[in-house]
Amino acid sequence: MTKHKTGTREQWLAARLELLEAEKELTRRSDELARRRQELPWVRIDKQYKFETDEGSASLADLFRGRSQLLIYHFMFGPDYKAGCPSCSAIADGFDGSVVHLANHDVTLAAVSRAALAKLQAYKRRMGWSFPWASSFGSDFSYDLQTAWTEEQQRSNVVEYNFRPEDQRSLLEAGKQGPPAEIAATTGTDWPTFIRERQGLSAFALEGGVVYHTYSAYARGVDGLWSMYQWLDRAPKGRNETGFWWRRHDEYHEG
User: Whose C-alpha in 104, 186, 211, 227 is 20 to 30 A from the C-alpha of 19?
Assistant: First the structure.
């Protein structure tokens, strides 16, 4: 017998209709937030950034691939990583199905990481992905978008993430053991090296030959991109998490 609350179909329907009103309100609120994102002022980008892509060296404007809008996922894969972040990998598993739809709506979806292009290409083949993925190694791009920091910045505790200062000392202490250390180990790095890269999403527009930064989100601001969590939030037991349970899709024993 289950320990969960049970009831009649009538009781379930009454509770479900009450929840439906809350879900509708959340949807309306989400629509309003989307509108407010689009109303943010655009920031002109004059700085030149260089990327390495499958097609060769590219500018930020080149990453648009002839479209007027660009969405970049900041994928945690630093120069010293042996493999991509498992959380970013789980998120990226959902990219390929969306790329073609977005491309046909004037939006290019791509990932950017600081690892060398050869590393990204090898990992991309391993994962079976096809979405565009560029290396920003040697460029300030990831630093300027607050998804990477130098070792010196980390040691001096001068780091901003998610639009606020982040205490590196407490973060480094928290990652000495447990799930954080486990996650870092899966990338072939230690915790301090691992967290010098961060996940995020940035949006850009291209008009009149000028690139504008329009939006960025970090930390749980990219939760909506993690498709498996959207499913789990609707499963009977929800996320039901105890520690670091997810893996790269080729590391599970059962499909």
Answer: 227
